[in-house]
Amino acid sequence: MTTRRQVLKGMGLGAAAVSAPIAGTAEAAPSEAIGSSWTRIEGKDKLRGRARYTADIPVEGMAHGALVTSTITRGLISGIDASATLASPGVIGVLDHRNAPRLNPQAGSPFFGPDGQFLLLQNDVIEHGGWPVALVVAETPEQARAGAERLRVSYVEQPHDIGFSAGHPLLRPALPSFGPDANKGDLDAELAQSAVTVDERYFTPPESACAMEPHAATVWLENGKIRAYDTNQAPFGVAQVLSVLFDKPLTDVRVEAEQLGGGFGGKTGVGPQLILATMAAMIFSRPVRVALTREEVFLTTSARAATEQRVRLGVDRDGRLRAIGHEAAFELSVKAEYIENCVEVAKVLYAADAIRTRINVVPLHILPPNSLRAPGTAPGSFALESAMDELAERLRIDPLDLRRRNEPEVGPVSGHPFTSRNFLRCVEEGARRFGWAGRDHRPRQRREGHLLIGTGMAGTSFLTTAFPSSATITAEPDGTFTVAIAAMDIGTGARTALTAISADVLRVDRSRIRLRIGDSALGPAWGAGGSLGTTSWSWAISSAAEELLTKLESKPSLPVSVTSDTTNEIFSLPPRERHAYSAIFAEVAVDPATGEVRVRRLVGRFAVGRVVNPLMVRSQLVGGMIMGLSMALHEQVVRDEVTGRQVNADFAGYHFAANADVPFIDADVVADYEPDNPLGLKGPGEIGTVAVAAAVANAVWHATGKRQRRLPITLDRVIEG
Ligand code: MOS
Questions:
Q1: Does the keyword Oxidoreductase apply (predicted)?
Q2: What distance separates the 2 farthest-apart alpha carbons in the chain?
Q3: What is the pLDDT of residues 256-311, one digit of tens each?
Q4: Which CATH entry fits the domain spanning 172-207+304-464+578-718: 1.10.3720.10, 3.40.367.20, 3.30.365.10, 3.40.50.1820?
Q5: Cβ of 529 below 6 Å from ligand 1
C-alpha cells in the first residue's frame, strides 16, 4: 500500500499531465496500472463507429415500436380508434391499456417505494402531459411512426396543476429516506443573537439530462425468459425491477448493454422504452425494439425537479457561523415519491451552533422528477453557497476567510469524525491557481470597455461511500484472468478504469485482464450512479482478487473462480463523514446593455480520493464543470401553464452549453485518499457540476452588484434598463 500511496502523491492532472505522452501502455509495471492515463479501451471502436450502442445491435426477426403520447396533461382516455393505424403499411398491431399485459404495482425503487411511472398502459388515466398511451408495432421504424401518427386518441380533459411554489397548499414533508432533518441547537435564538444575517430565497428550474444517446431497448423472449438490450446505468437493478413488474423470477430476466452514450441520471432506472418493448414482445411474440425520439426522451423519461429554497445564515462579527437554516421545497409528480435532497450539504460543509434543515414537496401533474447529475446537491449548493457569498458581502470580508473560519472538526450535525476532509486544500489551491489574492471584494469595480468584469467562488462536499456488489474472477489456464461484474460504462471510462484496477489487485499486466461488464447475469452490483460505480465495483473486484490469489497459492488446476460479495464489509463500516470536496472559481464578463454573461475562466480543485486514471478523471471533472456552467446560464425545462406540456422538448428550445459557451477550464485534484475504501477511492463523477452555478452567480454579482437568486441567469434577469 505504501508504494501506491507514493504513486498517488504529486499526481496532478493539470495541463502537463494531459498534454504529455500517455503514460503506461503495455510496458507499465503491473503495480502502476492505477494512476496511468490510459485512453479508453473501446476508444478506437468508438472513433471508427464499431462500438455498438443498444440501438445498433440487431436481433433476428425484430419489429419496431413507436410511442403515442398524451396530448393532454390530465384526464381520461375516452376512445382509441386504431382503424387507420391497422390499415397502415407494415403495422403489426397496437398496444394500449385495453390489451397490454398487467404489471405489478409494487414495482419501484428501494429508496422511494412503488413507482407509478412504471405502470404504463394499465388504465385510461392521464396525470401528466406526454404520458405514453399506446405503442404501435410495425415491420420498420418508419412504418411504426407512420402508424402512430394515424392513431386517433380522444380524451376527456380534467383540470391540471403544474404551478410549483413553496407556498402551494399541497406542500408536505418529503419521505425521510436520506436521514432525518437536522435539528441542532436553537436556530431562531442564534439568528437573533447574530451580528449579521442573511435570509434569502433561491429558485432552480426543472432540467433534463440530455444524454446524447436517446433511450432504446430491444426485447425478445427466449423460452419464456425476458432478454433485453437496454440503455441504462444499472443492468442488475433494472433486471430486478423488470422481474417484479412482470412477475418473473430474477433468473428469467437478463438485461445487457455494450456501450452507453451518457446517462447523467436519466437512465438510472427502468425506462419506458424497456417496459413497452417487453410488453410488445410478449403480445406480438416477436423481438421488438423501442427507440425513443428526442422529444419522447424529454417527455417520458425523467427530469430534475424545480426547487425553491430558503437559506438563513447568522454570524458573529468575526465571521463565525452561529446559524445555518436551509429549507427546501421541490416539485414532485402525483405518481411517485422522490427526494431532491437539497439540504444535505448544509449538514456537512460548515461548523455552526445551530443547524436546521427541512425538505418538503409539492405533488403536481408533471413528469416524475428523478436523479440528474448531483441530484439535490447541485441545486442545494447553489442556494447555500450563494447565501454564503451574500454573508461575506454583508460582513465585508473575503469569501475565502468565511470558509477558513468555519471549518468543522467533526460532522457539524452528526458529530462523527471525517475520514478525510480536504475542503480547505481545494479552496487554497484553487485560489492560488485562479489568482484570487488581491481581489477587491466590492462589486462593480472592474470594467473592460462597456463590459463589467467579476469573479466569484463556491465550494461543496459530495457524499462518498460504496454499495454492495459482487464480482467473479476466473484464473484461466492460459494465464489470463476473466473479471466479470454487472457494472456499466456510461461513457466515463469505467471499463478502462476497472481493467487497471483488476490488473493492480491481481498484480499482473493489464494485457492479461479480460473484463466483462454490462450484463445483469453477472450478479448483483450497484449501478453507475451516485458517483459510486467505481468505488463499489472496485471493492468487489479487489475482494475477489484477494481470495483468488490466496487460492492460487496452492496451485489448483485451472480454471479457478472466486465470487465476492461486499455486503457485510460495507454495511459494517462505522458511522463516519465520508465526502469528496470541491472549490470552484469563476470569472465572468457581463454586458449590462444586453444582459449577456460570458464565463471567461473556470478553475476547479477537487478532493476526490485516489485517482485511478488522471486523463479520465480530468474529463469527468471538466465535463461536470461544463454541466454546472450550463445549469448556471442556460438550462431549463419550460412548461406551458395552460396546456401543462413542456414547450421546449428539443435541442433547439432546450439550450445547454455548446463549445462557444465554454471557456478555458482548469480542473485538477488535490492530494486525497479515502481510508475507508480498500483502494482509497472516492467518486469524481458528479462533484464537478455541483458548486459551479453558485460560483458563476457570485461572479455575476461581483461584476454587476445585482444578486442572481434564480437559475438560469438568462439575459432578461441581468439586463439593466
Ligand atoms: Mo446519477 S444523477 O448518480 O446517475
A1: yes
A2: 81
A3: 999 999 999 999 999 999 999 999 999 999 999 999 999 999 999 999 999 999 99
A4: 3.30.365.10
A5: yes
